[in-house]
Design brief:
By secondary structure, the protein is α+β, with helices and mostly antiparallel strands. The chain has 2 domains: about 1-80, Glutaredoxin; about 85-195, Glutathione S-transferase Yfyf (Class Pi), Chain A, domain 2 (Up-down Bundle). It is about 50% helix and about 5% strand. It binds glutathione.
């Protein structure tokens, strides 16, 4: 498999965690987001959305959208499942994951922040925008799991919810959000104690830059 990504991309990071949890080997293809390489014609042939990640499978199919990729990996490589067997719990794990992937992350994505700047926002205002989006989203995420046991978001096994949370916590720090969600912070700490999460951090990637 080939993973098209970028060290800092939180959507790519999700897929790196899923691959690492399942112990799968893959090749990296890096696309420098700040240099706009996600919009190069060769990459747009793989993903017409001009977003990373994309995963080229062993059979030569190209998959896009990190959640769809994680669920594909879970179906094809079911060892170390990323979703609980119970349908209600599975729906809750997906709901938590979508709260991040559909309601927080897209609003603070590079292209949205660039558009805001194009409309006249300065750096402080775009940072404020991103902070508010993340704070509102995390406030809800903390409540979504208040009745769940730890150490992970949904009990004693890592799920898709944890895979979504850890990269988003890093985005929160990058935008200067003061973290004030004890449960989310405890989950992040528990996840980062695992080798699969450690190996998937941006700092551990070959294309990492300060
Ligand atoms: N919903 C997509 C989001 C993908 C996405 O937004 N990727 C970001 C990097 S984390 C990107 O490529 N941004 C490029 C841009 O905004 O121009 C997914 O989960 O794969």
């Amino acid at each position: 498999m080939k993973l098209h990504g970028y060290f800092r991309s939180s959507a790519t990071w999700r897929v790196r965690i899923a691959l690492a949890l399942k112990g799968l080997d893959y090749e990296n293809v890096f696309h420098h987001l700040r240099k706009g390489e996600q919009s190069a014609p060769e990459y747009l042939r793989l993903n017409p959305q001009g977003l990373i990640p994309a995963l080229e499978t062993d059979d030569g199919d190209v998959l896009t959208q990190s959640l769809a990729i994680c669920e594909y990996l879970d179906e094809v490589y079911p060892a170390v499942p990323l979703l609980p067997a119970d349908p209600v719990l599975r729906a809750k794990v997906r709901a938590f994951s979508y709260a991040i992937a559909c309601e927080i992350h897209p609003l603070q994505n590079l292209k949205i922040l660039k558009r805001l700047k194009g409309l006249g926002f300065d750096q402080a205002q775009t940072d404020q925008w991103a902070q508010t989006v993340i704070e509102d989203g995390f406030e809800a995420c903390e409540k979504l799991i208040e009745r769940q046991d730890g150490p992970y978001a949904f009990g004693g096994s890592v799920t898709l919810a944890d895979i979504l949370l850890v990269p988003q916590m890093n985005n929160a720090r990058r935008f200067g959000v003061t973290l004030r969600w004890p449960r989310l912070q405890a989950i992040e700490a528990a996840c980062l104690a695992l080798p699969a999460f450690q190996r998937s951090r941006p700092e551990a990637q070959p294309d990492f830059e300060v």
